[in-house]
């Protein structure tokens, strides 16, 4: 009688604590309690690396190897825990002044991944102020961070430094990207196409440039050109970013069935699940309900952290607007998100939420933000 | 080469922003009651695997056998990484549960402390494993709305945390030590057995009452000192895990010390001085105290300090018992029936209780209500 009574007590306690928790009462030794996330390479190797690092916590080579490994895993699985684990490998350095150059660069990269954009830019500026060699990677990352923050002039400055540092291709793409965001579409398109004329470029580089081109066409309102560029990019080298961007494009174009087909088989990260829920809802298919419920549950779980609404603002705003149809809440989320993250998608959400809210003040505020940044995007312009 | 690196980085920064996010969270439910504190702590098994390597066979799955085997390590890792000022925590039961993002280890803990203010929590779980880990604490206090606190793991080394935490911790462990001797009936009974004849002298004709208080005090001081020194030695040895003895041996042995000490009051059985006997038996009781200490949540950074405080508490509690009992016995010593009723009757009663405890602790049955 003892075990069922215990199980019942646990069940009641669990129910009282959280609707999300279900007690596990194992019955056999070989019962699988949990499945660990996939790793790159062997687990034994990962464990060895972790042990070595524990023994020599400030060995830059080991720390970088571990951090890179975890960051790759964070990208592959869309799992932010790995970014925290990567950061923990850099934790033994007391401050960034003590970090070797490569470690400080990794730190900035992780801060950017974790949406700590100001901290990332500060780390990069400290690194770039150090005497010595050219640092193209640091300039490129700084240009990216400033672009994500919507600080295009500062991004331009970093792009120019990138050219001085000898990374011609990336400098050209960097400048073209910023030009395209501010509406200089023809010149940017020409620049991307000129770079793509070099057929000897690695497939991944070509795919990256094609994705940039696709986004440019999408913002400029040329759906068929965007579609062609996205598909070319994904044919060259499928990657998570381009897949999500194309899924958003397909949803925007009211082609949910194709979006669902594209996302089928992808790791169900929050970003992927969100698109599945939105596309499924748009298509009105039966399986959408399960994805919507799961996404809703994940959001509820994430929101137990007080800072989640800032960190997950974009995804939450998209979900609330497209699935929950709660315009007021979507506006609050989109506004909070745009305070730190200002990619075109963030401002599109801001504009859509402002328009959906029916509040003239919201529309005015969104218009002001977009104008101040200098972003030109046809999708936003038709809303404001 | 630069180009390749830059490319890798470009893809990396390009792909970053769209990913999202259920970071590592542990959940704490803290119920502050009028007389006690209850804590429930849920920690994701995958986080514990990252810290401790639970997946013994590296197959990417955690079986019940692996989790079960690792459970002492899980508690040994987690408990020193949570402290609530003034409230040493004991694990009362454990469980497993499934949440949206995987399986969690659950620990139910309790403390006898009384908090008049919001609990001061020091939290350092997983700090060296995942910098984005947070503890989400729901604190309930009677008559107040529940509060939600996000705990950011802090560096748990002494330099960083003793300054803020030492004062409330100190009283907590002293109090805990006192509580454990005052409510540890077997230790109290053993002390009583030693004290019963302290106001008497043993003569060839049997017990005779002393004339002056000093004649009683010095033997008491000697006996209490021997007991204190002895149990401090074994408490320290056991608490620092230098010596480990099974509670299955220690608990019955403590009952035996009571029986023998009581027996010696009635029929002299020891050929050596009582101080020596007390010292030997004190060694055994020290292991008993350590058993209690092991269940407490001692932060590693303050282990020595906490051990000392716990022991100071024990001695204060012991002093309280010794002074009041000796004073009472001294006043009663000339009563005609002191020898018969107090020494003989008291010792026989102690022998009976000790014997029942011995049966309980060896046969694992429950006879006495305490």
Quick structural gist:
With 384 residues, chain A is mainly alpha-helical.
How far apart the termini of chain B lie comes to 75 Å
Order of helices and strands of chain B: HEEHEHEEEEEEHHEEHHHHH
- State the assembly state of the protein chains: heterodimer
Topology, number of strands of chain B: 11
For the largest beta-sheet of chain B, the strand count, sense and barrel status come to: 6 strands, mixed
Describe the protein's topology.
The complex is a heterodimer of chains A (384) and B (370).
Chain A: H1 2-17, E1 22-24, E2 32-35, H2 43-55, H3 60-77, H4 80-90, H5 101-113, H6 117-129, H7 136-148, H8 152-164, H9 168-181, H10 185-196, H11 203-220, H12 223-236, H13 240-252, H14 256-263, H15 270-283, H16 288-302, H17 308-311, H18 313-324, H19 327-338, H20 344-357, H21 360-373, H22 378-381
Chain B: H1 2-14, E1 25-32, E2 37-44, H2 45-52, E3 61-63, H3 64-78, E4 82-84, E5 90-99, E6 102-111, E7 121-123, E8 134-141, E9 147-151, H4 158-182, H5 185-195, E10 200-203, E11 206-209, H6 213-239, H7 247-266, H8 274-295, H9 303-332, H10 338-363
Parallel strand pairs in B: 1-8
Antiparallel strand pairs in B: 1-2, 2-6, 4-7, 5-6, 8-9, 10-11
Question: How is this structure best described in words?
Answer:
The complex is a heterodimer of chains A (384) and B (370). With 384 residues, chain A is mainly α. Chain A has a domain at 303-384. Helix content of chain A is 72%, strand content 2%. Chain A has 22 helices and two strands. Chain A has helices spanning 2-17, 43-55, 60-77, 80-90, 101-113, 117-129, 136-148, 152-164, 168-181, 185-196, 203-220, 223-236, 240-252, 256-263, 270-283, 288-302, 308-311, 313-324, 327-338, 344-357, 360-373, 378-381, and strands at residues 22-24, 32-35. The longest helix of chain A is centred in the first third of the chain and has 18 residues, at 60-77. The N and C termini of chain A lie far apart (67 Å). In chain A, 47% of the residues are buried. With 370 residues, chain B is of the alpha+beta class. Chain B has two domains: 23-156, no CATH class; 168-363, Growth Hormone, Chain: A (Up-down Bundle), CATH 1.20.1250. Chain B contains ten helices and eleven strands. Chain B has helices spanning 2-14, 45-52, 64-78, 158-182, 185-195, 213-239, 247-266, 274-295, 303-332, 338-363, and strands at 25-32, 37-44, 61-63, 82-84, 90-99, 102-111, 121-123, 134-141, 147-151, 200-203, 206-209. Chain B has a six-stranded mixed beta sheet with strand order 5-6-2-1-8-9. In chain B, a hairpin with a 2-residue loop joins strand 5 (90-99) and strand 6 (102-111). Chain B is elongated, with a radius of gyration of 27 Å. Chain B starts with a helix and ends in a 7-residue tail after the last helix. The chains are: A mainly alpha (384), B alpha+beta (370). The interface between A and B is large, with 87 and 66 residues.
């Amino acid at each position: 009688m003892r075990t069922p009574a215990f199980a019942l007590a646990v069940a009641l306690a669990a129910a009282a604590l959280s609707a999300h928790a279900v007690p596990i009462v194992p019955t056999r030794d070989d019962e699988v309690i949990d499945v660990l996330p996939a790793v790159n390479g062997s687990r034994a190797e990962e464990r060895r690396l972790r042990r070595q690092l524990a023994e020599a916590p400030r060995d830059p080579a080991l720390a970088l190897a571990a951090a890179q490994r975890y960051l790759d895993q964070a990208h592959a699985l869309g799992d932010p825990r790995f970014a925290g684990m990567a950061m923990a490998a850099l934790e033994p350095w007391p401050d960034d002044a003590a970090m070797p150059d490569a470690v400080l660069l990794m730190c900035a990269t992780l801060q950017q991944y974790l949406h700590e954009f100001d901290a990332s830019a500060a780390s990069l500026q400290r690194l770039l102020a150090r005497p010595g060699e050219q640092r193209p990677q640091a300039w490129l990352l700084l240009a990216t961070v400033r672009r994500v923050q919507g600080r295009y002039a500062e991004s331009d400055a970093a792009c120019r430094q990138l050219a001085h540092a000898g990374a011609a291709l990336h400098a050209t793409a960097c400048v073209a990207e910023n030009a395209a965001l501010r509406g200089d579409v023809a010149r940017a398109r020409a620049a991307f196409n000129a770079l793509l004329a070099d057929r000897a470029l690695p497939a991944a580089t070509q795919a990256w440039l094609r994705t940039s081109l696709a986004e440019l066409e999408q913002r400029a309102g040329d759906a068929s050109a965007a579609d062609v560029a996205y598909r070319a990019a994904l044919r060259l080298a499928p990657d998570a970013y381009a897949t999500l961007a194309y899924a958003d494009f397909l949803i925007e174009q009211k082609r949910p069935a194709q979006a669902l087909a594209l996302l089928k088989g992808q790791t169900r990260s929050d970003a992927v699940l969100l698109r599945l829920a939105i596309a499924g809802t748009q298509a009105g298919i039966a399986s959408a309900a399960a994805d919507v419920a799961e996404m809703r549950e994940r959001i509820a779980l994430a929101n137990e952290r007080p800072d989640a609404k800032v960190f997950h603002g974009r995804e939450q705003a998209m979900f609330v607007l497209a699935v929950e149809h709660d315009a007021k809440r979507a506006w609050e989320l989109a506004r909070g998100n745009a305070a730190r993250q200002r990619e075109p998608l963030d401002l599109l959400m801001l504009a859509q939420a402002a328009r959906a809210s029916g509040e003239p003040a919201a529309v005015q505020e969104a218009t002001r933000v977009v104008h101040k940044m200098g972003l030109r995007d046809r999708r936003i312009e038709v809303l404001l | 080469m630069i180009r390749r690196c830059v490319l890798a980085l470009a893809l990396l920064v390009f792909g970053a922003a769209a990913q999202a996010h259920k970071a590592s969270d542990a959940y704490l439910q803290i119920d502050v009651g009028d007389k006690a504190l209850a804590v429930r702590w849920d920690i994701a098994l995958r986080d514990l695997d990252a810290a401790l390597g639970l997946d013994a066979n590296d197959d990417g799955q955690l079986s019940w056998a692996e989790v079960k085997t690792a459970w002492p390590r899980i508690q040994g890792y987690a408990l020193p990484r949570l402290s609530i000022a003034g409230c040493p925590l004991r694990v009362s039961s454990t469980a497993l549960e499934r949440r949206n993002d995987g399986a969690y280890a659950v620990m139910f803990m309790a403390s006898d402390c009384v908090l008049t203010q919001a609990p001061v929590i020091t939290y350092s779980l997983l700090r060296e494993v995942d910098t984005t880990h947070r503890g989400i604490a729901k604190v309930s206090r009677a008559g107040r709305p529940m509060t939600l606190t996000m705990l950011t793991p802090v560096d748990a080394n002494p330099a960083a945390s003793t300054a803020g935490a030492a004062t409330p911790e100190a009283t907590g462990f002293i109090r805990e030590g006192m509580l454990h001797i005052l409510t540890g009936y077997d230790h109290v009974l053993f002390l009583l057995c030693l004290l019963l004849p302290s106001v008497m002298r043993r003569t060839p004709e049997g017990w005779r009452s002393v004339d002056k208080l000093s004649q009683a005090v010095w033997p008491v001081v000697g006996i209490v000192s021997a007991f204190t020194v002895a149990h401090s030695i074994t408490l320290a040895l056991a608490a620092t895990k230098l010596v480990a003895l099974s509670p299955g041996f220690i608990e019955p042995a403590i009952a035996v010390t009571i029986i023998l000490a009581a027996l010696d009051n009635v029929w002299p059985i020891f050929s050596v001085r009582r101080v020596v006997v007390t010292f030997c038996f004190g060694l055994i009781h020290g292991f008993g105290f350590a058993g209690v200490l092991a269940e407490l949540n001692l932060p590693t950074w303050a282990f020595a300090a906490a051990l000392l405080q716990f022991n100071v508490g024990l001695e204060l509690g012991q002093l309280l018992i010794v002074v009041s009992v000796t004073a009472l016995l001294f006043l009663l010593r000339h009563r005609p029936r002191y020898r018969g009723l107090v020494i003989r009757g008291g010792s026989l009663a102690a022998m009976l209780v000790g014997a029942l405890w011995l049966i309980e602790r060896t046969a694992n049955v429950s006879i006495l209500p305490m």
